[in-house]
Give the backbone structure.
Amino acid sequence: MQRPRIPPQILRLLVLTIVIVTVYSIARYFLTPQSFGMYGWYRAVALDEIAARPTTYAGRKACDECHSEVVQRLAKYEHKSVSCESCHGVGQAHAENPDVAVAKLTYSHCVRCHEADPARPKWLKQVKSKEHYTGQRCTECHIPHQPNEVP
Amino acid sequence: MIMNPQLTNSIVEILPRVEGFAYPNEATTHPLWSVLIVVYPYVTGLVAGAFIMASLVRVFNVKPLEPVYRLSLLTSLAFLLCAPLPLLFHLGHPERCFEIMMTPHLSSPMAMFGFVYAWYLMAVLLLELWFDYRKDFVEWSKAEPGLRGIIYRSFTLGVHDVSDPAVQLDARMGRIISIIGIPSAFLLHGYVGFIFGSIKANPWWGNVLMPIIFIFSAIVSGMALCVFLYMILSWARRTPIDMDCLDQMQKFLFFALVVDAAIESLDWVHRLYSADESIHILKSLAAGRLFYTLLVGQAFCGTLLPLLLLGAIQLFGRQMAVAVRQRVYLASSVLILVGVLAMRWNVVIGGQLFSKSLRGFMDYKLEFAGHEGWLASLGLLLLPFMILAVFVKLFLPLSAPPQGGGLPAMKPSGSTGAA
Amino acid sequence: MKTTLTRRRILRALSGAVAGLLSLAASRKAKAAVQKMLVASHTPKGYDPTKHKWLMALDVERCIGCGLCVEACKTENNVPLGPNYFRTWIERYVITKPEPGSGELRGEVVVDSPNGGMHGFPSSLVPKEQILKSFYVPKLCNLCEHSPCSQVCPVGATFDTPDGAVLVDPKYCIGCGFCIQACPYGCRFMNPITKTAEKCSLCYHRITRGLKPACVEVCPTEARVFGDLKNQAPDDPIQRFLGKNKAAQSLKAHLGTGPRVLYADLDKEVR
């Protein structure tokens, strides 16, 4: 009986192709991460991993837990939009352990925002620190938590 | 010799600085995609071009080119084997490269690399070579003793059938694969062009013509490489150069160069005429930071000069002495090779020399050593030549006429050996 | 004849093995998928990414260029301190008056961002009398709807989350840099330590905990506004912003990336 015979070289290549495809499929099965493709073409656990990173800034609510008096006072004056951590620095470590001190305030904190600059909007109160009561500290005249009040 | 346009740049070591404004993240000291990524499209282009040269014999039956058929295929293979190396070297995490095959993101042109590459290597080049060489492998494995014999025997994959019908089948398969191979070669290099052409964020890259420009510059560079290698190999082996073959190669090279130059000019005409918001910065880029590589290297030395030289030969070649013609051919193929390398440089590095804010230029300091330095890229450019030397030693023995083994089956009477 | 028969047998055995392996793989995959769903149903702190849509908006008129946001971003996210690594930064635009009699609308546009504006800005080199207009523009990831960066990532290491952020998976990124090239806004950089791409994560670890992103938290003038479009709180800052700035623009909208971050009072020179 004469049946159609696959030429040997073609057969050899077919076998080789099957082997390669099989190896690839097996590799793909084992090397694709578990959560891949749950939401989209990525590892879904990456969302949890990124969300699990520690924070350094605690947020105003955390400050309010112990310093609510200051926070409420601040809310009545022009600096109400300024967050505690804008001036006092990162607070997560301090919130977890009050013994950890927050950063010391200096003169540079004031001029960082209030130094005169043509690019700054007109509504912002600005001074030329080189001409404005040189030799005196800002806090001698201004109270940062109540900037509208001048003693 | 090939590195010339790049060397001129590296000698002028400029401190990283920004002229005008760049987004802070852009003003890095080294381009994100460095010389390695210049080498990558260059090498891939040579692969595609050399393959097209071989296909002229197989598919289009250009008989005079038969002496370079196998050399072109082997060149293509040697360069293809090295093509992924620059990419791999440049990755921040090369150990994770398998992810590109395991979870390929289908919307990313780069994710297709693994598959396009595997297809081209295994389904096109290796197959075509295997079918072409099968009969020789069987014969050589019997004739050659020792290690060589073992190598040849392993390449037969255990198939020793060299009967007439089997050899005829080989020839038929080779031709079919070659026909599939032409669009595959276009795919391979068009895809590399698409990696750049699809970046709409960068006006220097994001361009529909980019894949086509890449394909034609690839064909031109690959053909020039075949000319160059054929002449060098013949001189090294002291075998006579088949002038018929060389003239024919130059003819195809000339026509490919004409098309390439036309498309690249069209690109510039279109950019200048449609003049979108990026045109000012691109004009100053071309006239400033890319002056030597773009206008001098790519346009003048790499395109215009060879066009004139080869055009002159097309017109008056028959009256010229063989020695003159050979020198002109060698010179123009070297010029083209340098010019296409300059073109890759202009695309890859040029696209990273200006800010995407279109407000300034970056300067880059390119290091000599280091894994993204000159030395590494030079090594990666030389590596395929070394591999090719081994291939030539193994697969292009002096004794056998360097000619496609399967060809007689297609037209048994017509084909003769090399000169 | 005999050899082909044995070959045939081998082939049959092989294909059988392949089929078996594939069906095994399929079954195990299905099982794993079910398991994943079960495990993922209690993600940390009951945060469900499909129930939120975060957005940031910027009021150019309110930015004073203090650089607190840039500094806070670097601290909060452990961003390398070098001058080319920013998840957010501030640009200063100075537009000069046209030459008298030139008939031009405006003079030169000078832009700078020394160290991303992290330590504020030195006074501009352009004298005040020559300035037509000057302002600061905070920049960050534009949270594109059709983000070109996630489109080009070859492995799926950067992606658009269901809640509107665009994140990088640092454990999966291969460091090819394609996303950095594809971002039209220069918002991405290669982290020199991890060798992976990095960008603004919208402080994903903060917003999932009910906090504001660090830059929004420290911004003293409320130039940065942040909120959830799916859960409108009463007196929501983002709703107030949208109500007040109906003509708010986005950056490089012509590229079709669908940038979601909105800018109020944006000058046409800003790119």
